[in-house]
Design goal:
- The complex is a heterotrimer of chains A (about 290), B (about 350) and C (about 325).
- Chain A contains eleven helices and no strands.
- By secondary structure, chain A is an all-alpha fold.
- In chain A, helix 4 runs antiparallel to helix 9, helix 9 runs antiparallel to helix 11 and helix 10 packs across helix 11.
- The radius of gyration of chain A is 22 Å and the shape is elongated.
- The termini of chain A are far apart.
- The longest helix of chain B has about 40 residues.
- Chain B is globular and about 80 Å long.
- Chain C is α/β, with parallel strands linked by helices and about 325 residues long.
- Chain C has an eight-stranded mixed beta sheet, sandwiched between helices.
- In chain C, helix 3 crosses helix 4 and helix 5 runs parallel beside helix 6.
- The chains are: A mainly alpha (about 290), B mainly alpha (about 350), C alpha/beta (about 325).
- The interface between A and C is small, with 4 and 5 residues.
- Bound molecules: adenosine-5'-triphosphate and magnesium ion.
- The site of adenosine-5'-triphosphate (ATP) has 16 residues of chain C, from strand 1, strand 2 and helix 1.
Chain lengths: ~290, ~350, ~325
C-alpha cells in the first residue's frame, strides 16, 4: 500500500483540478463527450451499426444525421459504435505498452549496466522505425483481428514509455534526497516505490495521453489499410477505406464524419496531454 | 577537419549494431512470432498444398537458425530474395522500381512541412505568449491530430471532384509517358533532364495534393519544435549581446534562426520515420505507386519474400537517413567536431 | 564634463508575482573618462540599471519614468532605430557570462566584423577585418585566432573577445556587467587591467557593475552603492571605502574578507527584501543597525554630504 499512498500524495501535490487550464478542460470535455455518446449509443440511434436500413447511400437527413453507406448502414450509428472499437483497441494497446515499457525503463534506468545498454539499443532501434510499418508487419503476420491490432499497436509504443521512464529514472535517481535515502540504507524496492515511481507519475500521465492520441491515428491507419478489425465491425478507419471510392463519386458523408471523429478524439487526448504538461511544468511566465 | 572524419567513421560504425538489431527484429516479427505468416495472409481456406508450396519457396521449412543466417548473409550480399509471384524477379529490383515515387513524394511533403513549420514556429516563438502564439499552438495540435487519408480525401473532394482543378490519383497522366523513358525515376527531374517540360508540369500537378496533405499533417510537429527552440534561443545571452551591439532586428533574428534550426535538424532523423508512415497512408489515399502501395499490394498477394525484403529495406533506409542527418549536423554545428 | 546623467529613473518588471520595482527613482551622473563602480547585493537592480541605459531590457520590463541623458540627448526619447545607432558604437556592453554571450555558430572575427559593418557601412570588408584583428590584438588575443569559433577559446579569452567587440568602435561608454564573475581570480585581474588600460588609452568611461566592493574600489574612480532598487551612496572610491556614510555601505565594507585577517568579517544580518513589496520608508531599515522610528515611515531624500551623495536620515 506504500506505493498507492505515495501516488495519492503525489497526485494531491500536483493539484490537477485546482490548476487545470483551458487546454486540459477542453480535452476532457471532448474525450468525455465522445465516451458518453458512444456509451449512450443505443439510446441515441435506433439503428444497428451492422444491419442495413434498406436505404442505401442516403445523404444526411433528419432520419440519418450522417447519411447511410453503400450497404445501407446508418453512418451516425457506425460513428457512435466506432468510438467503442477505437477506444477499446487504443486504450488496451497503450495500457499494454505501458505495462511493458514502464517496468523495463525503470529497471534499465535504475540498475544501468550491460542489460540497460542492450535493452536501450533495441528500444532505440524500434523507436526509429516507422511506427505504422512496424504495426502493419505485425498485424499482417498475425492476421486482422481486434486482439491482433491491440498487440501490434502495443508493440509499437513500448519504446516510447521505455525511453521516457528510463531518462526520468536516471535523473530522479540522482536527486539529492534520493541519494541521501540510499546512503541511509533504504532498499532498492523502497526507493523505487517511495521515490522513483511517484515522481515518474506526472510524466507518465502526460506521455500516456499524448500516446493515446498517437495510437488513435495508428489504429485508424491500420484499419484504413485493412489490418484491424474485420468488417462489418464499426470502425472509423475502416469506414474511410470503404467509403473512399464512393466519396470520389460524390458521396462525401461516407468518409467525412468518421475522419472528423478520428481528428476530434485524437485532438481531445492531445489537448489533455498538452494541458497536463502545462500544469506540471508551469514554465510560461506571464508577460505584460 | 581530421576530427570530422573521425566523427563520421565512428558514427557510421555505430549504425552497424542498430541495423543488425532492426534486421533481427524484422526476422522475429516475420518468422518467429506465433502464427504462421503465410497461412494468416493466404487465409485459412486455402488448400494446404498451396500453402506448403509457398513456404517451400520462401525457405520457411528450414530450421530457424539456418533461416536467420541465410537471411542475414543474403542481405549482406545485397540479395533481398526473389518475388514469389512476379516471375521470380529480384525483390531489390522491384523495390527500386517503386522507391523513386516515394522519394519524390516525401521530398515534396517534407518541404511543405518544413516551410510551414519554420514560418509558423518562428512567428509563434517570437510572439510567444500572445494570441497569435496560442492560435498557432492550436493549429499544431489540430495538424498533428488530422488523419492523413481523411485530409487527402477532403482535398480530392474539393479540388478534384468539385472544382476539377487537380488530378486526384497517380503520379502522371499515362498518355504522356508512352514513348518516354524516365532517367532517375523522379518524374519532375526526369522531365527536365529529357527536355519534356510537359511531363515535369504534369508530375508537379499530381504532386500538389498528396504533398500538401502529407506536409500539413507533419508541419504541426515542426511548428512546436521551431517555436520551442526560438524561445530557448531568444532567452540566451548572445541574443541580448547581439542587440546590445546595435545589430538590426533582421540580423539578430538571423543569429536566432541559425541557432534554433540546429536542434530541428537533429529531430529530422526521427521525423523521417514519421514521414514514411505518413507516406504509406498518403500513397494509399492517392493511389501513388510508391513503396507503401507496393508493400500493401504484395501483402495482399502473400508475396512473402517481397514483403520481408521491403520491410528490411525500410529499416536500412531509416538507419541510413539517420546517419546522414547526424553527419550533416556535424558539418553545420562547429561544436560537434571537437 | 558630464557624459551620462540618469535622472529619477524607474524601471519595473511586470511578473506573475507582481510588480518588481527593480530600479526606483535612481539618479546618477558620470563624467567622461571615469570608471564608476556600481555595487550592491544580488537583486539590487544593478543589471537592470545597466540594461536600461542602452534599452535592451527583457520584454516584461518597463521604463516607467525618468531620463537618461547621454552626451546631451535623452536616450529614452530616441526611436528604436536611433537607439540602435548608439548601441555598440557610442555605448557598448560587456556581459557577465562570456561562455554564452557569443553566437556559438559564428567565428569570433565575423561577429566583430558584423558589428563594425552594421555601424560603419562605408568601411570595406577587408578594412573591417583589419580592425577586428587590431582589436583582438589590443585585448591580448593573437590575431590569428580570428577564424576560431567561441567554443575553441577559454572563458577568459572569450571575455577578451567580448571586450574587443565592445571597444572596437571606440565607444564613449562601456557598461561592464560583472565582467569577471564567471572567471577565476587571476584571469579576473587581467580583465580588470585591460578595462583600466582602455579607459586610459582612449578616455572611455566605464560603468563597472559588480557585487565585489573591494574589486570596485581598487579600480574605479567613483563608487555607487545600490540596495533594493535605490541608490544609497555615491562618491569617490577612496572616500566611500575609507569613510562610508551610509550604514549599508559600512556593512558592505565590514563584510569584505581581509586576506591578512586583520579584522573580523561581519555579515549584514537579514536578507534583501522582495522587490514586489519593498519595505516602507528607507528600504534598508529592517536590516539597519542605526534604525530610527522615522526610517520606516518616510523615505530619506538624497543629501549632499562632503561632496558625496547619500540617502539616509542620519545626515539630515
Ligand atoms: N527578467 C526578469 N523578470 C522579472 N524580474 C526580474 C527580471 N530580471 C530581474 N528581475 C528582478 O529585478 C530585480 C533586480 O534584478 P537585477 O538583475 O537588476 O539585479 P542585480 O543587482 O543585477 O543582481 P545580480 O547581482 O544577481 O546580477 C531582482 O529582484 C530580480 O528578481
Ligand atoms: Mg546582474
Amino acid at each position: 500500500m506504500n506505493i498507492v499512498n505515495a501516488i495519492l500524495e503525489k497526485l494531491k501535490t500536483m493539484g490537477l483540478l485546482r490548476n487545470s487550464n483551458a487546454l486540459f478542460k477542453a480535452g476532457i470535455i471532448i474525450v468525455a463527450g465522445i465516451i458518453i455518446l458512444s456509451a449512450l449509443a443505443p439510446l441515441l440511434t435506433p439503428y444497428s451499426p451492422i444491419v442495413g436500413t434498406g436505404d442505401e447511400l442516403a445523404p444526411p437527413s433528419l432520419k440519418h444525421p450522417m447519411g447511410t453507406n453503400n450497404l445501407g448502414y446508418d453512418m451516425f450509428s457506425r460513428v457512435l459504435y466506432g468510438a467503442r472499437t477505437v477506444l477499446t483497441v487504443v486504450v488496451s494497446a497503450t495500457l499494454l505498452s505501458m505495462a511493458i515499457g514502464v517496468p523495463l525503463g525503470l529497471i534499465s534506468g535504475y540498475y544501468g549496466g550491460k542489460v540497460d545498454r542492450a535493452i536501450s539499443i533495441v528500444m532505440d532501434s524500434m523507436y526509429a522505425f516507422p511506427s505504422l510499418i512496424l504495426a502493419l508487419a505485425i498485424a499482417a503476420v498475425l492476421g486482422a483481428s481486434l486482439i491482433n491490432a491491440i498487440i501490434a499497436i502495443a508493440v509499437v509504443y513500448v519504446p516510447t514509455y521505455f525511453r521516457m521512464v528510463r531518462g526520468q529514472t536516471l535523473s530522479i535517481k540522482s536527486l539529492l534526497y534520493v541519494e541521501a535515502a540510499r546512503a541511509l540504507g533504504a532498499s532498492d524496492s523502497r526507493i523505487i516505490t517511495r521515490y522513483v515511481f511517484p515522481n515518474l507519475l506526472p510524466t507518465v500521465l502526460v506521455v500516456f495521453s499524448m500516446n493515446i492520441a498517437d495510437a488513435i491515428l495508428t489504429e485508424a491507419g491500420l484499419s484504413f489499410l485493412g489490418f484491424s478489425v474485420p468488417p462489418p465491425t464499426p470502425d472509423w478507419g475502416a469506414d474511410l477505406r470503404v467509403g473512399h471510392s464512393f466519396m470520389l463519386a460524390g458521396y462525401w458523408w461516407l468518409v467525412a464524419f468518421p475522419g472528423l471523429m478520428i481528428m476530434l478524439l485524437a485532438t481531445g487526448f492531445a489537448l489533455i496531454g498538452e494541458g497536463l504538461s502545462d500544469i506540471l511544468n508551469p514554465r510560461r511566465e506571464a508577460v505584460g | 577537419m581530421a576530427s570530422l572524419r573521425t566523427y563520421v567513421i565512428v558514427r557510421t560504425l555505430m549504425t552497424i549494431p542498430i541495423v543488425l538489431i532492426l534486421l533481427t527484429l524484422v526476422f522475429i516479427i516475420l518468422r518467429v512470432m506465433p502464427g504462421d505468416p503465410i497461412t494468416s495472409m493466404v487465409g485459412m481456406k486455402a488448400p494446404p498444398e498451396y500453402i506448403e508450396m509457398l513456404k517451400e519457396k520462401a525457405g520457411l521449412n528450414k530450421p530457424l537458425i539456418i533461416q536467420y543466417l541465410d537471411y542475414l548473409f543474403g542481405i549482406l550480399r545485397g540479395d533481398f530474395g526473389r518475388s514469389l509471384i512476379w516471375g521470380e524477379r529480384p525483390v531489390l529490383y522491384e523495390i527500386f522500381d517503386h522507391l523513386p515515387a516515394t522519394i519524390e513524394l516525401t521530398i515534396f511533403g517534407f518541404a511543405v512541412s518544413v516551410i510551414i513549420g519554420l514560418i509558423t514556429g518562428t512567428i509563434a516563438g517570437v510572439r510567444s505568449g500572445t494570441k497569435t502564439d496560442n492560435a498557432l499552438r492550436i493549429y499544431s495540435i489540430l495538424a498533428y491530430a488530422t488523419f492523413i487519408p481523411w485530409l487527402g480525401m477532403m482535398f480530392q473532394l474539393i479540388f478534384g471532384v468539385y472544382l476539377k482543378l487537380l488530378p486526384i490519383s497517380g503520379r502522371i497522366e499515362p498518355s504522356l509517358t508512352i514513348d518516354w523513358k524516365p532517367v532517375t525515376g523522379l518524374y519532375v527531374l526526369d522531365g527536365i533532364l529529357t527536355g519534356r517540360l510537359d511531363i515535369t508540369i504534369d508530375a508537379l500537378k499530381h504532386l500538389i495534393l498528396p504533398s500538401i496533405t502529407l506536409g500539413i499533417v507533419l508541419s504541426g510537429a515542426y511548428t512546436r519544435l521551431v517555436r520551442a527552440n526560438i524561445i530557448e534561443v531568444l532567452g540566451q545571452d548572445f541574443v541580448r549581446a547581439a542587440k546590445a551591439r546595435g545589430l538590426s532586428e533582421i540580423k539578430v533574428l538571423r543569429h536566432v534562426l541559425k541557432n534554433a534550426f540546429i536542434p530541428v535538424l537533429t529531430m529530422m532523423g526521427l521525423q523521417f520515420a514519421i514521414l514514411l508512415t505518413g507516406a504509406v497512408l498518403t500513397e494509399t489515399t492517392f493511389s501513388w505507386p510508391g513503396m507503401g502501395t507496393f508493400l500493401l499490394e504484395r501483402i495482399k498477394y502473400v508475396d512473402y519474400t517481397t514483403i520481408q525484403g521491403t520491410i528490411v529495406f525500410f529499416a536500412l533506409f531509416v538507419s541510413i537517413v539517420n546517419l546522414v542527418v547526424d553527419i550533416l549536423y556535424a558539418l553545420i554545428d562547429p561544436r560537434i567536431r571537437y | 564634463m558630464t557624459l551620462l546623467k540618469i535622472n529619477n529613473l524607474k524601471v519595473y518588471y511586470y511578473t506573475r508575482r507582481g510588480i518588481v520595482k527593480a530600479v526606483d527613482n535612481v539618479s546618477l551622473a558620470m563624467n567622461k573618462g571615469e570608471m564608476v563602480g556600481l555595487v550592491g547585493e544580488s537583486g539590487s537592480g544593478k543589471s537592470t540599471l545597466g540594461l536600461s541605459i542602452i534599452r535592451v531590457l527583457p520584454p516584461q520590463a518597463k521604463i516607467i519614468s525618468g531620463s537618461v541623458i547621454f552626451n546631451g540627448t535623452d536616450l529614452l526619447k530616441l526611436s528604436e532605430r536611433e537607439m540602435r545607432k548608439i548601441r555598440g558604437k557610442e555605448i557598448s556592453m560587456v556581459f557577465q557570462d562570456p561562455l554564452t554571450s557569443l553566437d556559438p555558430l559564428q567565428k569570433i572575427g565575423d561577429q566583430i566584423v558584423e558589428t563594425i559593418l552594421e555601424h560603419e557601412p562605408n568601411i570595406s570588408k577587408q578594412e573591417a577585418y583589419n580592425m577586428a584583428k587590431k582589436a583582438l590584438q589590443e585585448v591580448g588575443i593573437p590575431p590569428d585566432r580570428i577564424g576560431n569559433y567561441p567554443h575553441q577559446l577559454s572563458g577568459g579569452q572569450r571575455q577578451r573577445v567580448m571586450i574587443a567587440l565592445a571597444m572596437v568602435l571606440k565607444p564613449k561608454l562601456i557598461i561592464a556587467d560583472e565582467p569577471t564573475t564567471a572567471l577565476d581570480v587571476i584571469v579576473q585581474d587581467r580583465i580588470m587591467e585591460l578595462l583600466s588600460a582602455l579607459k586610459k588609452e582612449y578616455g572611455m568611461s566605464i560603468l563597472f557593475i559588480t557585487h565585489d566592493l573591494a574589486l570596485a574600489a581598487e579600480r574605479s574612480d567613483k563608487i555607487a552603492v545600490m540596495y533594493a532598487g535605490h541608490l544609497y551612496e555615491y562618491g569617490s572610491s577612496t572616500d566611500v571605502v575609507n569613510k562610508p556614510l551610509h550604514p549599508y555601505t559600512e556593512g558592505l565594507i565590514e563584510s569584505i574578507p581581509d586576506v591578512f585577517m586583520r579584522k573580523e568579517i561581519k555579515e549584514i544580518p537579514g536578507q534583501p527584501p522582495d522587490l514586489t513589496k519593498p519595505p516602507s520608508g528607507c528600504r534598508f531599515h529592517p536590516r539597519c543597525p542605526y534604525r530610527m522610528p522615522k526610517c520606516s515611515r518616510e523615505e530619506p531624500p538624497i543629501l549632499q554630504v562632503n561632496g558625496r551623495l547619500v540617502k539616509c536620515w542620519l545626515y539630515s
